[in-house]
Amino acid sequence: MKDAASRRYRVNGIELNVAVEGDGPPLLLVHGFPDDHTVWRKQIPALVAAGYRVIAPDTRGCGDSDAPVGTRHYTIDLLVSDLVALLDTLRIDKVRLVAHDWGAGIAWALAMRHPERVDRYAALSVGHLSAYAHAGLEQKLKGWYILFLQLRGFAEWLLRLGDWWLFRAVTRYREEAPHWIESLSRPGRLTAAINYYRANIGMILPRKLPHVTVPVMGVWSSGDAFLAESQMVESKRYVNALFRYERIEGANHWLQLTAPDRVNALLLDFLR
Known about the structure:
With 272 residues, this protein is of the alpha/beta class. It has one domain (6-271): 3-Layer(aba) Sandwich (Rossmann fold). The protein has twelve helices and eight strands. It has helices at residues 44-49, 76-89, 102-113, 129-134, 137-142, 144-148, 154-171, 177-184, 189-199, 229-233, 255-258, 260-271; strands spanning 6-11, 14-21, 26-30, 53-57, 95-100, 118-124, 216-223, 243-252. An eight-stranded mixed sheet has the order 1-2-4-3-5-6-7-8, with helices on both faces. α2 crosses α3. The radius of gyration is 17 Å and the shape is globular. The two termini are 28 Å apart.
């Protein structure tokens, strides 16, 4: 799954592995947990063919990017500043933005804090952080694993136990599991990935956050085991611009892999 077009860029005191492909208007793709930039492998060719310059980083701690040791290195502030620094390094003023899962959380924060850097934003699976925090019991039940992951050391031990049995059971995606396990088996990598949840546990609590002022398309899949539909639908309350909602039937949480044709069609329509 390695991308021959990827290279390393030094930002914020670490090196990020970034796939850059194509020419034209810049388009930033931000992956989530437990992925790296290869989760976009069914989107990148279509987006490049449509005339975009696609930038797909492995976020810090993931893929082949640096993984600093310590929870404090994975706060949402640092994750957002990594993306801003990457755009600065690439001399890009403004991007179209597409993100999934944890990447979507980071991208919502980017759009809140730096609207001048975002032309429009397609959020896959995860809604506005306030909509997520205010979501009801269904979302609280679906997000049980966030509390489990706070058990430092024990969570890592249990996820690896029995050839990663619990990890496979929780993620429920047999086809991708071998890739994830190979990546997360490297020293320190599982903890680095989990540190996203540990460094930002406060994000699940309701609090006052800025509204987003750029156009947003929220896409949710009916087979998502981790996110309730309401947290995406209610995101419209926190967007002071065009908000478009699209529901994909049958796809699991990784909708860009399990419904790529539908996702690509939606992205190409929205992004142009």
